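Forwarding these from the shared drive since the link keeps breaking.
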Amino acid sequence: MSIITQLTVHRVRIPLLRPFTTAVRSATELETVLVSLTDSDGRRGWGEAPISRVTKATTDEVTAAIDSHLRGLLRGRNLEDWFALAEAVNSSLAPATARMAVDCALHDLAAQQAGIPLYRLLGGGAPTITTDMTLSVGDASELAAAARTHVAAGFRCIKVKLGPDGDQVARLRAVRDAVGPQVVLRVDANQAFSPEHAVDVIRALEDSGVNLELVEQPVGAADWAGLAFVTARVETPVMADESVWTLADLRTLIRLEAASMVNVKLAKAGGLHEARQLVAEAQDAGLGVLIGCMLESTVGIAAAASLATASRLADSAPGSSGLDLDGGLWLRGTPVEGGAHYAGNALVLADSPGLGIEGLAAATPVHADQSAS
């Protein structure tokens, strides 16, 4: 019998290779919280809670939530009960990103106990997926140059962040001219537009012939009527992101036919337990499902990729042109040894038990504070 003996919180900051800029924020470093769960056999499972305005919790809030809501749920419990424990974590009052970290660490530990990689615990699949590459908000020449560089490095799907102002057609036309007709282009407005403006922008992009695969979250997250308004008036598929955090959100989207696609992220769902349900219900409703990430390290991204490959999302649109898991490619270093790694536009999952993480990295540009009990 294996017992969960310790939960350790690691506060981590990692500089970015370049600024990450969207319609709602600009970042020059990753602030994140790593969680490790230790069992009585000495195994450690890992999870991550990315910190930002988008995930709606600070490092102090995540740490406090783990201490007050989650630590007592797990410590001293039998790992054989891991699925019930994941349900308890999911039902707690902790912020979603805190639940993500503990939930993923629990899944990692359960897969290690079973002696199989996490993606196999979740249902199998292939250990390698491809990802898109995101371009920050910028002018036409900056976007074209960045797109050209990433395509030369092997990326075949580019996602362009849009701000609320400027000539969007000129920006996307420059990117399309830079990369040619074979590269898939997506755009993400991060809630930048009013519904009417979104329709005008998307129709102009359609008329320009830039051939977009999808438009992500063109209007405010809570504006369900606005999202449905846009979806009904454009030909380009619309994907909901910030609008969908929970199963209740997804069911609202389905009822209102507000979008034809949804971006599922562990930091919104609160980890793998609820994310698996989101994926299943979205697929049952005929929605296109993309697995995405926040700005985070390969600790969190590997868990998301494990779900994606186990759910065969890389084989269906929109995932077949590249999932949205490039967050770790923005970092100057990695906080851990072992685990998943990038190879060009591919994310390769470890084939060892769990996530394959060996421990915290010894020498990277990482600042980490630790607390355990």
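-- next protein --
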Amino acid sequence: MTRRTALKGAAAATLATPALAQSQSPARRVDQPLFGASSWTLANGLRVVLAENRRAPVAAHYLYVSAGAGEDPAGKSGVAHFLEHMMFKGSPHIPSGAFSRTVAREGGQDNAFTSRDVTAYFQIVEASRLPLMMRMEADRLAAPLIPEAETESERNVVLEERRQRTDAVPRGRFREAFDAAMWGPQHWRGRPLIGWEEEIRAITRQDMVDFHTAHYASANCTLIVAGDVREADLRRWAEEFYGPVPARPKPARSRAAPLATAPEPRLITRDPGVREASFLQSFAAPSATWGEAMQSDPLEVMVHVLGGGPGSRLHRALVEAGHAVSANAGYDGDVVGVGSLMVAVTPRPGVSQERIEEIVAATIARLVQEGATEEETRRSIRQQTAGALLALDGLGAAPRMLGGALAIGLPIEAVEQWPARMAAVTQAQVNAAARHVLASPAIATTAWLLPA
């Protein structure tokens, strides 16, 4: 997920937050920190971050674990996500199911999510209820029950979630097959986040206990609090509730390198459940943590020039020219390990596959050979930063951005100084990044989802 995408997600989360007043911010200097967050570390290794926001008496409490589906053991995809479900099944002082009931009774919201790189648990509540959230979250971080008696019923919930989101959705099945074709079905990037069905069925309680023991050390977690909270109060509460969590060694984090080439460089899927064709093309790329990491910011700019909506090259060549309904490009660079750059096109009825591929290839070739112009570079930077910054007044932006970055090993400055770094990207850097990723990609997959 790019920082721009994270901001959009934070904005969406903010809109769903009750009783949260929105207000206009004064003009922001490009060198001004986004959130002005403060950070410190407890004796047990837990990092604590506070982003004060006093516009409403509300607090957001996020606990990030630096482990996600990418840490699933070989042959046991889905463990990280299954454990996320089981973390709601009680802890020494909180009975099974009582966590969410308590949050709801206090008028708040709670949930959790698992990505490839992190697992996060969060609550949004009236600010005075923050200590209660911290006490409950610390309790299950230290010692979740993961009861054997509830494992099978929750397995069925996970399998039903997989059926609804993937198995019953043609595009979900296609995207799962595409990732496996690009990276390999047992590579951490090629496995589905929720897990392969047969492997979900084989996960045991002990697998989840082992995963918790290995990855849920306090030193492997980041606590992010945003909202109407004072630093002195948060320091006291963090010591009181999280300080007693026993310290354990922080696990080393390593991700397998990608294969030398894509296992399946071309994939054609026909499905009776779809009525219109879809085209995907993906290329391995440096990320903020892998390969030539200094290219991650230029790649964000470059992919916007290539396919960042109206005015982008793919949009002009395909949508404005009447060949496609939609055409865009995205970059997955804020990740642990190898990143990816993807092109997606929905052709207009009657336009051939060959014509779409021809136009995409020609558009990419021109970008590689001629480069982005200075005007395109500046416009891309301006659109990305100005559009994304609209989300900053919302309560959800700070914990999503700060937690997501810190949990994958990036410094806090990677978020706080993002606009300044983006503004410093040059035309030459953008064009060098385009050549590096797109000129002669070793790892790439082209795929079509077609009506049966």
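The chain has 17 helices and eleven strands. The two ends are 32 Å apart (CA to CA).

- D.
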